[in-house]
Amino acid sequence: MKCLQLIIGPAGSGKSTYCSVMFDHFQSLHRPLEIVNLDPAAETFNYTPSVDIRDLISVDDVLEDEDIIMGPNGGLVFCMEYISKNMEWIHDQLTDGDDAYVMVDCPGQIELYSHLPIMKEIVTTFKSWDYNVCTLFMIDAHFVLEPEKLIAGALTALSSMISLETSAVNVLTKMDQLPRESKKEVEDMLESDCSQLVNGVNDEPWNERHAALSRAIASVLDDYSMFKMVALDNTDEESIEDLLLMIDTTIQYGEDAEVHDRIPKEVDPNEE
Ligand SMILES: Nc1nc2c(ncn2[C@@H]2O[C@H](COP(=O)(O)OP(=O)(O)OP(=O)(O)O)[C@@H](O)[C@H]2O)c(=O)[nH]1
């Protein structure tokens, strides 16, 4: 079964760092992994991509083209539209075997996932090549310690999940940077449901309606069990293993192999 992790999240949330940490982890497990850099504006990253989209098109090239007049954001959208129409260029460079496992390191512009159709088209193309796709939404752990920011992060992640139509795992990055007491706070938070977490929103009289709205959103998130987060401490091997196990389960990695192993050997009809 072909598996694909689509790594998305705001700029600086830790997408490329995650890819390089997982690249090393896969190597230590002797598991094959191909990484696609899908960010035409990427500057540097600490892994060796199997496919680098900048070899096809880069934002710098587009901005230098005198026939195309646009700013950096328009340049990125132009590149992404071009990529979505030239996906075969990526396909040709992937091994694409039955056990292919691919990570796609995406740009951080959130509008690509919320209201533009481009990423959905790219995901649909990967699905048409029989990849099981799981979206990983990276959230900087520093931003979830306040209930208001937690709600905002949850809604952004949900809007991406709904528009991309894939299974999803929300990853809290940079846990190693948190002081011990904040780390404990985040770990406790992950054990709680959203309604408990937003109890602390500012409900001074002038914020009453805002607090009520936050509580209503939290209760919907709990009712549908749709927003779950996993903390990742890049410096802790166990944390990396736990996350990969969860993603593999979500993405159904290796399930066809297990089914194959479970197929009974030819049965002798004379045998009882
Ligand atoms: N200590 C620590 N630093 C991290 C971690 N993840 C990311 N960083 C740092 O945060 C900064 C941004 O990380 P990136 O991995 O480049 O983030 P990105 O989401 O790929 O950023 P864009 O490509 O701009 O969208 C870099 O300086 C990283 O070194 C982490 O888990 N721990």
UniProtKB/TrEMBL annotation:
<dbReference type="GO" id="GO:0005525">
    <property type="term" value="F:GTP binding"/>
</dbReference>
<keyword id="KW-0547">Nucleotide-binding</keyword>
<dbReference type="InterPro" id="IPR004130">
    <property type="entry name" value="Gpn"/>
</dbReference>
<comment type="similarity">
    <text>Belongs to the GPN-loop GTPase family.</text>
</comment>
<dbReference type="GO" id="GO:0003924">
    <property type="term" value="F:GTPase activity"/>
</dbReference>
<protein>
    <recommendedName>
        <fullName>GPN-loop GTPase 3</fullName>
    </recommendedName>
</protein>
<dbReference type="InterPro" id="IPR027417">
    <property type="entry name" value="P-loop_NTPase"/>
</dbReference>
<keyword id="KW-0378">Hydrolase</keyword>
<comment type="subunit">
    <text>Binds to RNA polymerase II (RNAPII).</text>
</comment>
<comment type="function">
    <text>Small GTPase required for proper localization of RNA polymerase II (RNAPII). May act at an RNAP assembly step prior to nuclear import.</text>
</comment>
<dbReference type="InterPro" id="IPR030228">
    <property type="entry name" value="Gpn3"/>
</dbReference>
<comment type="function">
    <text>Small GTPase required for proper nuclear import of RNA polymerase II and III (RNAPII and RNAPIII). May act at an RNAP assembly step prior to nuclear import.</text>
</comment>
<keyword id="KW-0342">GTP-binding</keyword>
<dbReference type="Pfam" id="PF03029">
    <property type="entry name" value="ATP_bind_1"/>
</dbReference>
